[in-house]
Amino acid sequence: MRIAAGVDVGSTQTKAVILSDTGGMKILARALVDTGANVQKAAERAFDKCCAEAGVQAQEVGYVVGTGYGRYKISFGNAQMTEISCHAKGAHFLCPGTRTVIDMGGQDSKAISVGLNGEVLDFVMNDKCAAGTGRFLANAAEVMGIGLDEIGPLSLKATRPVKIATVCTVFVESDILSYLAQGKKGEDILGGVHLAIAKRTVSLARRLNIEPEVTMTGGVARNIGMVRALEEVLGLRMEISTDAHFMGALGAALFAIEKLDQSFEFGVWKGDHANRSGH
Amino acid sequence: MDKILEKCGELLEDINFKAIREWKESHPGAKAVAYFPVYAPVELIHAAGMLPVGLSGAGDRLDIQHADARFGSFICSIVKTTMEMGMTGHLQPFDALLFSTICDSARNLCFVMKRNFPEIYVDFLHLPQNPSSPASSDFLAEEYRRILHGLEDLCGRKIEDGQIRNSISVYNRDRALIREICELRAREPHTIRAWESYLLIRAGNLLPVEEHIALLEDALTKLRERQNKKRDSIRIVIEGSFCEQPPLALLRLIEEAGCYVVADDFTIGQSWFDSDVPTVGDPVMALANSYNECSVYSSVRHDFRHPRWFALPEKVKATKADAVLFLIAKFCEPAYFDYVPFKQELERAGIPHLQVEFEEKLFTFDRMRMEVETFVESLVFD
Amino acid sequence: MLAWYEKLDRAANTGDPPTVSMMISGNCVELLEGFGAVPLYPEVNALQLAIRHQSLEPILAAEELGYAADHCADVKADIGCLLTGITPTGGKLPTPTLILCNFVGCNTYLKWFEHTAKLSGAPLYVIDIPFMRTDEPMKADVEYVVKQLKETVEKLEKLIGRKFDYDRFRQAVACSSRTENLWSQIKHLAKNRPSPFDAYFDAITLMGPLYVYRAKPEGVAFFEAALAEMQAKCDAGLGVYEKEHFRLVMEGPPPYPYFRTFRDMFAKWQACAVASTYSTVGGLWEFGFRHDPDKPFESVALHMIQQNVTNRNYLQRYEQIKRYVEEWNADGIIIHFVKSCRLFSAGQGDMRDYFTKQLGIPTLYIESDLEDPRYFSEAQTRTRIDAFFESLEHSKAAAAVQHWT
User: Fold this and answer.
1) Has residue A269 got a pLDDT over 80?
2) Cβ contact (<8 Å) for C391 and A122?
3) HSE-CB for B15 with a 13 A CA cutoff
4) Are A69 and C379 a contacting pair at CB < 8 A?
5) In the CATH scheme, what is the code of domain A3-91+245-275?
6) Do A3-91+245-275 and A97-240 agree at the fold level?
7) Is pLDDT of A129 > 90?
8) Residue B382: what pLDDT?
9) Chain A interface residues facing chain B, Cβ-Cβ under 8 Å?
10) Choosing among B36, B80, B124, B133, which should be mutated to test the C contact, i.e. which has the most C CBs within 10 A?
11) What residue ranges do the domains of chain A occupy?
């Protein structure tokens, strides 16, 4: 059995995916742990947990690719790839028609133009500011005293979404409080917040050529309110996978599988790459 | 009076430029030339039989959805909303777009728009920054003639000096009326509110000048008859809002917080000259000379013969103001720069001041209200 | 460069030689030679401070005075120097005999020098250089600048109390022409595969003598030596790295406080810059323009109008980059947005749009600042750079495979 793994070390959570491609590509297991203070240990915990889930021994894993902001700290990793490359790869594997990825994570958001083989053609990132990231939504939820899981569904009930002027998370908090004081309904406020973020994110994505299929990845993909708001602003339906949260680790694992049987000389793929049925 | 103000308000709010479209329909073949702040030689555009229209961004009336892909962070909003208007077809009524020397961001905007909207005639006017040189007026006259050639190509006919002299005369009258309104406000600020004078003057950016003159004459007659009660307010000069404009609601808020705005630089492009431009001799040279010799001070024009940080305290004295409010658009580099020496000189002269940052697209002002009210209180309860 | 700082220190202590403050872009250092005056470049001070990690204190001092957080940090650093007396080398910097603002497009330059004049009390003269708003400079533009250059000469004669030495000026212009020729040849060596030097990081380091010593024999000697060194490397087939894997065109200033770190991020991928726009701040010499000693005032004027990156319009910068990509054979473009400098950065999104969507050239957009050490995120910048090269690597591999099949 050819088995490989990907480990995605994020600032709050670390994810791992184990793949095998014997008799077709199969996800054997996924695992998720809190990153905590020690990145190195978080990577190990995620990997071990994933091995246990998959019922494989660590030694059986032929190649490990690390990704995420902590990718250089994975001592047992064989290589690193950025989460941009991994999200593109993973999204393309799960939805082969993917040509654009919109990734909204806890700390940043990005849009990726994806090629026919899941390769990155172009990308744009917002990593400077909380607007368009999970942090923004988390702040909004906190200010309103509503659970993070509830804000999405609640936002869908908006009948008159409020206008949010700025997407600076600091100022939006006071805007939300102001609206609450004015007696605006929670769902309308949340509807406005989700719409504002969606507009901001799509605006970022427009720096690329947005081509369907558009696949959404990252933790915020679990927020149905955000998904609908994005679809509304984009004017098209998006693909969402239940594995959206694991996209980075999945992509890393896919790269790991590729590197397993290729000898890769810098800049040139040798071996039977040209003959592989592409994904 | 209310009707006049309402009409002005509608003109300013309309980013579809309905009034301009209607003007073009009733003047078949005539062109509209838009210009980005602060100053433009509108007399030349008028002499060409075209309608000069002063743009001032789109405030909060347009969501920036496309322009921020081209102009990112740390750039003022007016650059982005102007680009957004272009990208969403709002600038369709305009046949030409004029930019001039004001700042680095606006200058880059000119050329970005040139690339993106090849169907519009886009040009950049280099306004001189060395007025102490005798060569300066000659250069500007040449530069004006270059723009004139561009306008001639656009309208398909030659523009005669006589026509330019006539246009200068008309705009002199418009400026004289604007000066009158400003003087009235400085003398009797209870008679006319700052937001009212703003609307009346700014409407001149969107109306044929002849109509604007009529409007101002009408308004002045009515204003002279007003019997408003005096308010208990401090007299302030507003400085720093010469390009991106604050929302009108912010202006009202400032007055409600207890201020008479006795002078400001909101519409500085429209009162650019402190005296009439001569209507004899070479009119293009007259305009160039007036630019170098008779311009009011501004953050977008270098003139060290009398540095503007001395001119500000003089303005405060001349209008008997109590304080200065620096109302600066976020990321406005010229305003940020000038704030430092302005502040130094005000402190030297013992004139109180407050700095407040705004963005044209704001529509909630709680924080600002508090800042201004606190400032007023600190002056009143000395 | 240290010798230059020593001269400045001497000028500060003794008042001799006379000094003239100028901006780097579109500077007329040849004119100074007619008086034996030494140039003072506030920008260089700011950058030296940043590189030596000394810029934060002066920036903070300037902010206390009221300079905004979003102000050009170069200005804050330099003004901060004036306020605190901090200098890059610890030696003294003189109050210049004349503050000569060569206004070449950059409005910040103008304000910067107004403030310096106010703070230091030194006289200020602004040479108003008409912006490149048409494809070629107009006759009226050149005439205007020449007249102002002559006014500058008159002013300096009064201030220094010495007559302008026209012959020395002409010789200086001739010297510049030779220095420029050498610099241009060096720039063209980067067309080689591999390039013998990095046309961004190394070029920036080489730039200093270009504006301090351009019009002096020391400048000629320096660049003769540099050219010889580069040529030798070319002949030996030596590049910057063991194997040059990627060739880039760089747009925008570097993050000076993190110069080394930033360089390493590209070194990791063995990516070499073969051209850059920032290195043409001190003059655009690679496309053939040279100062002409037979028309000294006119050619100085032409350089100030047309042959520097700041006075050229944004679309002309696009063309400059496009030419670099094509003629220097680059694989991609790196656009470095710096929050301080709107001249470079306002509209870089549109630049990116032009190169990626219209021309299909791989382009990476990264953000930080050129001077302010607080505005750089190593992790984020590294991620973007890595992702870009991962993608580029893949397309090179795919192209290679296609080539074989």
Assistant:
1) no
2) yes
3) 18
4) yes
5) 3.30.420.40
6) yes
7) no
8) 62
9) 128-129, 163, 165-166, 174-175, 178, 199, 202-204, 206-207
10) B133
11) 3-91+245-275, 97-240
d(CA B72, nearest CA chain A) in Å: 10
Contact residues on chain B for A163, CB-CB shorter than 8 A: 363
Judged by a CB distance cut-off of 8 A, whether residue A215 touches chain C is no
Q: How far apart are CA A255 and CA A86, in angstroms?
A: 8
The amino acid at residue C148 is Q
Express each pLDDT in B218-258 by its tens digit.
Answer: 999 999 999 889 988 999 999 999 999 999 999 999 999 99
Q: What is the pLDDT of residue A165?
A: 67
What dotted CATH number matches C170-404? 3.40.50.11900
Q: Provide CATH code, domain A97-240.
A: 3.30.420.40
Nearest of C78, C144, C84 to residue C117 by alpha carbon: C78
* Tokens 């799509």 sit on residue: A202
- Strand locations in B77-136, DSSP E? 96-100, 121-125
pLDDT surpasses 60 at A268? no
pLDDT band at residue A131 under the 50/70/90 scheme: confident
Mutate to test the interface with C, among B137, B337, B338 (most CBs of C within 10 A): B337
For C2-163, CATH number out of 3.40.50.11890, 3.90.226.10, 3.40.605.10, 1.20.120.530 equals 3.40.50.11890
CA distance C359 to chain A (A): 13
Instruction: Single out the residue of A113, C234, A173, C317 nearest to residue B111, CA to CA.
Output: C317
Q: Hey, are the CB atoms on A273 and C401 less than 8 Å from each other?
A: yes
Supply the pTM of this predicted model.
0.91
**The pairing of beta strand A63-68 with beta strand A79-80:** parallel
Contacts of B69 in chain A (CB under 8 A): 203-204, 206-207
Asked whether the beta carbons of residue A203 and residue B366 sit closer than 8 angstroms, the reply is: no
Residues B45-70: tens digit of each pLDDT: 999 999 999 999 998 899 888 999 99
Indicate if the pLDDT at residue A170 is higher than 80. no
Per-residue DSSP letter, B295? B
CB contact under 8 A, A122 and C362: yes
Cβ of B65 and A178 within 8 Å? no
Half-sphere exposure of C396 (CA within 13 A, CB side): 17
**Bigger pLDDT: B235 vs C396:** B235
Residues A222 and A126: beta-carbon distance below 8 Å: no
Angle at B18 between CA B17 and CA B19, to 5 degrees: 90
The answer for B 55-74 residues in CB contact with C (under 8 A) is 68-74
Instruction: Please check whether residue B361 touches A, CB under 8 A.
Output: yes
More confidently predicted of C51 and C106 = C106
Contact C394 A120 (CB under 8 A): yes
Domains, chain B, ranges and CATH? 28-159 (3.40.50.11890)
| Distance, CA of C321 to CA of C370 (rounded, Å) | 20
Q: What is the mean pLDDT of residues B295-303?
A: 95
User: What are C202-249's pLDDT values in tens digits?
Assistant: 999 888 899 899 999 999 999 999 999 999 999 999 999 999 999 999
The 8-class DSSP code of residue B134 comes to T
Cβ contact (<8 Å) for C144 and B124? no
**CB–CB of A163 and B363 under 8 A?**
yes
Q: Which pLDDT tens digit goes with each residue over A46-77?
A: 999 999 999 999 999 999 999 998 888 888 88
Whether A201 contacts chain C with CB within 8 A: no
pLDDT of residue A276: 29
Domain ranges, ordered by start, for chain C: 2-163, 170-404
CB-based contacts of C366, cutoff 8 Å, min separation 6: C334, C335, C336, C337, C381, C384, C385
Please choose, from the candidates B257, B265, B270, the residue with its C-alpha nearest in 3D space to the C-alpha of residue B377: B257
